[in-house]
Amino acid sequence: MLILICTDDLERSKDVNPYLLIEVSRILGNFGGICGLFVGFSLISIVEFVYFFTLRLFFVVRDTKEEDTRDKIESRNKITRRAHNNGNIYWREIMPRQVASRY
Fold first, then answer.
1. CA-to-CA separations, 2 to 16, 20, 89, in angstroms, rounded
2. Can you give the residue ranges of every domain in the chain?
3. What pLDDT is recorded for position 25?
């Protein structure tokens, strides 16, 4: 396989077949494509993995904090329920009876 890199001198010469000329960007693109085909991923895939795992870590930490606060709230609610006679509310507890004035 013969690859000639395109320069001004080669373009001016009439001895070179124009179908053999290839640009540097095409060589790099083809090389990157072949590497991506055989290796299986590219630089964008690496960035996606980093992004995924940092977000995953963030949400795991946030969920554990929410579970801790939820457990604390539930334990406080259990204590207050026991103190309030199994959660029954009586009307007189909310609004005590006022003493009637005699006129």
1. 12, 7, 92
2. 1-40, 41-86
3. 80
